Amino acid sequence: MTTIRWGVLSTANIARTQLIPAIKQAGNAEIAAIASRGPKAHDAAAELKIPKAYETYEELLEDPEIDAVYIPLPNHLHKEWVFKAAERGKHILCEKPAALNAKDTEEMIHFCRERNVKFMEAFMYQFHPQHARVREIIKSGEIGEVKLMKSSHSFNFQNREGDIRMAKEMGGGSLYDVGCYSVHAIRTVLESEPAEVQARAEIDEVTGVDTSAYVFLELENGIPAIFDCSFDTANRNEYEVIGTEGTIKVPYAFRPDQNGGIGPVIVTTGNTSREEKIAGSIYQLEVEHFSAAILNDAAPVYSGESAVANMRVLDACFTSMATGKRISLRSDGAEVK
């Protein structure tokens, strides 16, 4: 087998506009089927030229010709359908956040491992080569010793009424929707896990979801990091690494596709600044990476353990937001002073 045959559970916008086109562009993947709850799948299949359409998710999972599935369902449904897909031996690319808490994520990873099924949480942004370049620049010592990382991901969310991102019971809110990207970026760029978390949020009075969150992290390597996420501010998807000798700014960190796939990396030291323009198609790279992991029986670069660790930080953010306390994630169990 040289090509992974993909099925998609849902006609969600991200599937139709991003993942399905990426599967078609990928050199080692093909789109074989799409499913919905009802007849919508037929319209999507006709529009996107997908060979098979199913009116239930279960029917797609029963199709022996499907190797892997993409799950872009509402957050609270991820665990249920990961389990059902794994039971039928399908490899799984699941939209972020993987689940609503670390415990559920851990159970999902364990369930997939028991059934020899590969699982990856879909943080597509990480496959853009700009981030490898950032780590390379940090390691070179060009900006000196890293002292701080800042990250922001937000957009001015219009027409909120009835949107699942405003439904608390479905895993709505800015932290789950966009804040999780900053958590992931801080962990991967600085190559260290958060040890302490302090968070504050603005909560929508009607729905109870966080519409903005402001978070301070202290990493195990001693480097502090700050991030914000919001439904109430202008479109930003950026991070900055600050060192003793200079800075690295990444203005299209999470959505370089909004800049034609170009990820500018701006390095400033003293009075000198340069911009490196790095190209990459994030969704296509994600699909090709996961398909290659299946074909080669290799572990995806983004592991299940890392997905659990990311969710553990989100859990701590929610606890801190609710209690006003600084939360310890230290592996040695040390208390927050």
From TrEMBL:
What Gene Ontology terms describe what this protein does at the molecular function level?
A: nucleotide binding; oxidoreductase activity
Pfam families from the entry? GFO_IDH_MocA (PF01408), GFO_IDH_MocA_C3 (PF22725)
Q: Does the keyword Thylakoid apply?
A: no
| UniProt domain GFO/IDH/MocA-like oxidoreductase: residue ranges | 132-248
Q: Which InterPro entries match?
A: Gfo/Idh/MocA-like_OxRdtase_N (IPR000683), Gfo/Idh/MocA_domain (IPR050984), GFO_IDH_MocA-like_dom (IPR055170), NAD(P)-bd_dom_sf (IPR036291)
- Database matches in SUPFAM superfamilies: Glyceraldehyde-3-phosphate dehydrogenase-like, C-terminal domain (SSF55347), NAD(P)-binding Rossmann-fold domains (SSF51735)
- The Gfo/Idh/MocA-like oxidoreductase N-terminal domain covers 4-122
Ligase among keywords? no
Keywords for this entry? Answer: Oxidoreductase
Record Gene3D superfamilies:
Dihydrodipicolinate Reductase, domain 2 (3.30.360.10), NAD(P)-binding Rossmann-like Domain (3.40.50.720)
Record-linked PANTHER family:
OXIDOREDUCTASES, TRANS-1,2-DIHYDROBENZENE-1,2-DIOL DEHYDROGENASE
As for family, the record states: Belongs to the Gfo/Idh/MocA family.
What's the protein called, per UniProt?
A: Oxidoreductase
